[in-house]
Amino acid sequence: MEDNKYRGYTPDYIDRLLPNQIFVFGSNALGYHTGGASGTARKKFGAVWGQPEGLQGHSYAIPVDYGKNVRKDAEVKSAVERFISFAKGHSELFFLVTRVGCGIAGYQDKEMAVFFKDALELKNVSLPKSFLEALEIGEVSHELDRFIEAQNTGNLYHQTIREIREGGRLSQRIWFIFPQIKGLGHSYNSEFYGLNGKEEAEAYLEHPELGSRLKEITMALLDSDKPSVDDIFDFPGNLKIRSCMTLFDLVSPNDVFKKVLDKYFEGKPCEKTIWRLGFRDNKLKNQVKLSRLTITKDYTIILSDYNKEVKMEPLVKAIYLLYLNHPEGIAFKTLPSFRNELTRIYSKLRPYGLNNQAIKSIEDVTNPLLNSINEKCSRVRAAFLSEVNSSLADQYYIVGKSGEPKRVLLPRDLIIWE
Prior knowledge:
The structure is a single chain. With 418 residues, the protein is an alpha/beta fold. It contains 18 helices and 11 strands. It has helices at residues 36-44, 73-88, 109-115, 129-134, 145-152, 156-165, 174-177, 188-192, 198-206, 210-223, 237-251, 256-265, 271-276, 314-324, 339-349, 356-365, 372-385, 390-393; strands at residues 21-28, 54-56, 59-65, 94-97, 125-126, 293-295, 301-303, 308-309, 398-399, 407-408, 415-417. Helix 11 packs antiparallel against helix 12 (256-265) and helix 14 (314-324) crosses helix 15 (339-349).
């Protein structure tokens, strides 16, 4: 199968790449790759400081940020066109486009998606789900034929189910017969046959052939007279079975997948799979309500109903508490007016007082011409995403459109100050 055949859409979370994959991100005009996707590109995928555009290691930069409240749509459109032209000329590479321009640069998904419309014609480019939805192209193609092709090669699917029924031991063919969430492994197969997320797993289960095969072979696994999964699969195949069953149990609760977890794993799911799907632990996987947010007397931040602490560095926490104090919101451009209040909050989090470096940090974070406040808000967001279902997390962190007041959306009756 050709490396560039699988497209789907770009995962929300990327921390590793296949040898031919390129991480496409939005850069500022100076090529200062600090926070967000640009920071990830610099730290993990070879982005070069000071280079605002083009291929850099396993990343590709598209300049979209020209300064505070500055929009240069013509320049951004041209840069995207240059990227698309580059992708057309490098079919040996596969380009994972992130939500370019939808962070600090201030573009909405529907605005940026229009620039990338011509990329839909390319087999070696994937776009974020939000771009595809904005373009209203209908259902996302997950290109699940990669599994059909692999399973049918040498009649491997039927050979595998026969071996399970006959009590043999298996060491190969796990990736494309018992798929798991992308990002759990480091091999080519783990990435190529990894499923992007819950949506792609749902598509897999709804596929007329793949879904029926998965249930059939899972039932064969359940009916096996082997007392332990280790008697059927060599390491690490036994771990992959657990992650596969966990993924599809989340997609189809109370199905055969839960029965396999109960039989072979004492009902305990794969925590890494749950975490990858946006849940911190199994207790939260069915959590659908917002938790109360308690600020203790020592300024610890607690999700009371989840019994979870949200940990942040002192300055990041001080900024978050500042925004909690102002339900009306604070625009970044007005932050200098809140410098004294932020200093008082920060001093309470540092019992030994504020040194010159701490005071300088406050000056930087309240300077709207610098990127410090965006970077700190990104850390607030990451802190909550690590503890709260991603569908609820935006109620807790600091949100708002570019140029407008930012605020914490959580209803005030759920915020408790001890």
